[in-house]
Specification:
The protein is of the alpha/beta class and 271 residues long. It contains ten helices and nine strands. The chain has helices spanning 3-16, 22-34, 50-61, 66-70, 91-103, 121-129, 142-155, 203-206, 212-220, 238-247, and strands spanning 72-75, 78-81, 111-115, 134-139, 161-165, 176-181, 223-232, 251-257, 263-269. The strands form two sheets. It has a seven-stranded mixed β-sheet with strand order 5-4-3-6-7-9-8, sandwiched between helices. Strands 1-2 form a two-stranded antiparallel ribbon. Helix 1 crosses helix 2, helix 1 runs parallel beside helix 3 and helix 5 (91-103) packs across helix 6 (121-129). The longest helix is centred in the N-terminal third of the chain and has 14 residues, at 3-16. The protein binds S-adenosylmethionine. The site of S-adenosylmethionine has 22 residues, from helix 6, strand 4 and helix 8. S-adenosylmethionine binds at residues 87, 89, 93, 115-119, 121-122, 138-141, 144, 167-168, 182-184, 204-205.
């Protein structure tokens, strides 16, 4: 079988399973199987790897997320290990990192706290893009922290990123220049209606309501005066979360959009 024929067979199977981008996913899976770039696929040789490829296609056709099947996923400038212990880092979270960088532009050697670090996406991207930063990441899931730890080691930020198991700020008192969090915000009754891929992600990373309030309360005790809190919020929740920050006494409360133009980031400064 040629590469073209293998891709056509896979794309057909994925399309039949309702995968939204069957041809592109087939290319990613075959490139991963053969250890080449997607752009190099058409000059590559299947080299006896057809069965391995078909196994990955079978998993994807069962609607396992592409990121889990590949075992890694790109986030900002990093490639992170991901598996069902952690949420797959999303494009909207890249906008959260962008907003953090903007808020820290005049802060030298910033001390940063990432509440609910998951794979380490936000914490490690900030360490990568602010080489003078020190970052603490917490998580209430010991399993998620194992993945964050692996990513910390692979990215080489062991010196500047510390990972702590526990609830919210896990007893860390700062003072921090920035507290950032992408808390769980999918409503429990919403989950069954969402795409099948989400059912593979950890429930404790996805499902939650009103988590911004305890995070904002805890953060206000650990931020320096003038320090910033940055929260990713669910679609349609930005105004409510902004009002919560105002009610808690945060100043300069602002809502920003993600790349798709949706209001997904809310921030404010501790007075
Ligand atoms: C939506 S995921 C975000 C993961 C990662 N920061 C990202 O943006 O891709 C939320 C994370 O918060 C963690 N979490 C949930 N409740 C928590 C709590 N009370 N304290 C600390 N972490 C919590 C979950 O285990 C999960 O890893």
């Amino acid at each position: 079988m040629t590469v073209r024929e293998a891709l056509a067979e896979a794309a057909g199977a994925l399309e039949q399973a309702g995968v939204p981008s069957p041809a592109v996913d087939a290319e990613w899976l075959l490139a991963h199987t053969l250890g080449v770039r997607r752009s190099e696929l058409y000059g590559a040789d299947l080299d006896g790897r057809l069965d391995d490829f078909r196994e990955l296609v079978r998993r994807r056709a069962a609607r396992e997320p592409l990121a889990y099947v590949l075992g890694e996923w790109g986030f900002r400038g990093l490639t992170l290990v991901v598996d069902p212990r952690v949420l797959i880092p999303r494009p909207e979270t890249e906008a959260v990192v962008e907003r953090c960088l903007t808020l820290l532009v005049d802060v030298a050697e910033p001390a940063i706290m990432d509440v609910g670090v998951g794979s380490g996406a936000i914490a490690l991207a900030l360490a990568d893009e602010r080489p003078d930063a020190v970052v603490v990441g917490t998580d209430a899931s010991a399993a998620a922290l194992e993945v964050a730890e692996e990513n910390r080691r692979r990215t080489g930020f062991d010196e500047r990123v510390r990972l702590v198991y526990g609830d919210l700020l896990a007893g860390e008192t700062g003072p921090f220049d920035l507290v950032v969090s992408n808390p769980p915000y999918v409503a429990p009754d919403e989950l069954p209606r969402l795409e099948p891929e989400l059912q593979h992600e950890p429930r404790e990373a996805l499902v939650g309501a009103g988590r911004e309030l305890p995070i904002a309360r805890a953060a206000s005790g650990a931020l320096r005066a003038g320090g910033a809190l940055v929260l990713e919020v669910g679609d349609g929740r930005a105004c409510d979360v902004a009002a919560t920050l105002v009610a808690l006494g945060y100043a300069d409360v602002k809502v920003s959009n993600d790349l798709a133009g949706r209001q997904r980031v809310v921030d404010g400064r501790r007075r």
